Each structure stands twice: as C-alpha cells, then as structure tokens.
C-alpha cells in the first residue's frame, strides 16, 4: 500500500492528570514560533475605521546586494482612530505574499498624533529576483495602540510580476479596505489526501498478529496545490507528531519530493501504545514544509483530534481541529480496524 513505512511507540503517563510539560518545553516553543509566524496579515486588528487617504512609496531591486527595497515616504489624510483626542499613531507594515512566514514582516517607526505621517524609511528584503517576481507585496497602514489593540487604516497590494522595475520614483497610491478574501478567511495552502485507521488492543486475535496495545495508522498519500515559493516549484516533505508528545520518539517525517507543487508521498506511519481512551486527548499533527539548506519553511498543516481545547484535563492551544478534522477523527474512532479516507485542506496552524 505504500513505498515507505515507519512504526514508533506512543507512550506517556495516562494516570497523571497533567502531561509532563517540562520534558518537551523546547519542542513546544518551536511549534509556537511556527504558529506565530503564519498569523493573518490582519491579526491584531481591533479597529472599525474606514480606510481613507493615500500612501507615497517607491520600489527598487538592488541587483548587487540581491535586495528588494520598499521606500516608504509618507501618508496623507489617514482616518482618525481616537475621535475624542482627534489622533492616530500610524505606522506602515509590509509582507511578501503568498507565504508571509517565509520572508516575514517589515514595518516603519510609529509617528504619533498625526494623520499625515512622514517616514522616509527603507524596508529591505534579502531575496532573489526570480523568487521576488512570483510574490505580491502587501503594504498596509496601521494605528499603533499601547495595549496592542491596533487598528487597520488601509492597504495596497502590488503584483510584482507585472511591476515596472524601471520606475524608481515615489508615487502616490490610494489606500483600500482589506481584501474580501482576507476578510472571509480564505487562506488556501493546498489539500492533503490521507487515510487513517485505529486498531484497538486485542482486536486482531492472538499475538503476534494482535498488538498488545492499540495502534493508529496514518497513510499520507499526496498533497495538491502547494504554495509555490520558487519558479521551479517546492521541495516538500511532511512532519508528523502525536501531541502532547513532541519528543524525538513522536517525530516522524516523509522523504523530500523535489520541484513539485503536487507531491505524492505514499508514506505510512504507525504509532503503537494507544489505548482507546487516549484518542480523546491525543492529536495527530501533520505539517508540510519546504526544504532548504539553511532552514525549512512552513507551508500548511492539519490537526486530527476532537478539537476540545483540552488534553488530559489541561487547556492546550493545539487541540483546535476544524469541523472537518474532528469529523474525520471521530469516524476513525467509530470504525475501528477500517481505513478512513479523507481530503483535508491545509491551514496555518
């Protein structure tokens, strides 16, 4: 059924009411950093002001230093956020899309008590020109709140593939409301085809065919329509953990499929050590990554569990399965010893 397979044990103390958090705190920190890096462009927007005004900026690419430069000059006639005090404290933020996590955000300083801020700052990205040309620049203006309740003031999105790179002059552009796709939460990262199966302890007859404890089988078949980070495609692989265990024993991964936005993995992973009651508190996390020499880039993932927000009585942020993911996990729990097939959209965890 698959060309590669791996089997590992899933072990943790089921008698404790709290999981051993200290033993995997460093692993959880790395997962948290991934989650934070792929938050929405509009995360932290607490305002309800209408977008208005204009922004003046220029774009350039420094061939010698292989650097994309966004020269943010100034804004005019921005919306007033605090009407009582008649003030806004604006700053400008930029992302390269579609993969916000890959290059990260850049932002200017905050200019206080003005709707006509002057910045004259250059936001820089170290990036190859051929990679830049398959990106979009999202430039947005925000009011900075001391308590972090920032307000969105307007944005502009630039398709860098069609940009006139001979134009290095500063130009004015009208700020627009946030795009409908972003408002509706559209964040397409691809779709994973997989099957899962739960084998309860004592369900297959006598040992050696019968496992002494339950097993969860995960068959990662393929992924369609991954984010294309390079003109040649992506070099992708899938990581798997059974949370709350983020130790090396829990970690498994597929081989890397090169230059393909529709990779076929056909990889099966078997976790033993499962008791039926563990299925309520455990979560299978599958994440897809782009492989590069220096660092890997998160592309999207899924979490299979009951999505209760709790694991062994402890509140955890990773028990956040979508309705589709919960239904898939529940079907596996009900139909033991049977492969359950699914087609689940990848998301930013």
From TrEMBL:
Signal peptide: none annotated. One of its GO terms (biological process) is exocytosis. Its main location: membrane. It is found in: Cell membrane. InterPro entries: C2_dom, C2_domain_sf, SYTL1-5_C2B. Residues 51-173, 188-319 form the C2 domain. It comes from the Eukaryota. GO terms for cellular component: exocytic vesicle; plasma membrane. One of its GO terms (molecular function) is neurexin family protein binding. Keywords: Cell membrane, Exocytosis, Membrane, Repeat. This is Synaptotagmin-like protein 2. The gene is Sytl2_1.
């Amino acid at each position: 059924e698959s060309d590669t397979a791996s089997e590992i044990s899933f072990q943790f103390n089921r008698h404790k009411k709290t999981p051993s958090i200290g033993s995997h705190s460093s692993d959880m920190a790395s997962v948290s950093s991934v989650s934070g890096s792929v938050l929405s462009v509009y995360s932290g927007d607490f305002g309800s002001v209408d977008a208005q005004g204009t922004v003046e900026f220029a774009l350039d690419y420094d061939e010698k230093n292989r650097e994309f430069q966004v020269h943010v000059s100034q804004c005019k006639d921005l919306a007033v956020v605090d009407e009582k005090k008649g003030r806004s404290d604006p700053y400008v933020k930029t992302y390269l899309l579609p993969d916000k996590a890959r290059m990260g955000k850049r932002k200017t300083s905050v200019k206080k008590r003005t709707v006509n801020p002057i910045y004259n700052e250059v936001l820089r990205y170290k990036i190859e020109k051929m990679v830049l040309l398959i990106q979009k620049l999202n430039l947005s203006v925000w009011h900075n709140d001391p308590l972090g309740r920032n307000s969105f003031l307007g944005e502009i999105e630039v398709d860098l593939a069609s940009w006139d790179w001979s134009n290095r002059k500063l130009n004015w552009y009208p700020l627009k409301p946030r795009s409908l796709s972003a408002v509706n939460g559209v964040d397409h990262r691809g779709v994973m085809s997989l099957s899962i199966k739960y084998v309860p302890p004592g369900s297959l007859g006598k040992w050696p065919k019968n496992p002494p404890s339950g097993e969860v089988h995960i068959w990662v078949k393929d992924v369609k329509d991954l984010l294309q980070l390079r003109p040649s495609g992506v070099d992708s692989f899938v990581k798997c953990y059974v949370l709350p265990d983020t130790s090396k024993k829990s970690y498994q991964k597929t081989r890397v499929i090169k230059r393909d936005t529709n990779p076929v993995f056909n990889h099966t992973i078997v976790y033993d050590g499962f008791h039926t009651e563990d299925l309520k508190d455990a979560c299978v996390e599958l994440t897809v990554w782009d492989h590069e020499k220096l660092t890997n880039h998160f592309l999207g993932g899924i979490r299979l569990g009951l999505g209760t927000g709790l694991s062994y009585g402890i509140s955890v942020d990773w028990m956040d399965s979508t309705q589709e993911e919960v239904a898939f996990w529940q079907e596996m729990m009900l139909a033991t010893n049977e492969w359950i097939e699914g087609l689940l959209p990848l998301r930013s965890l």
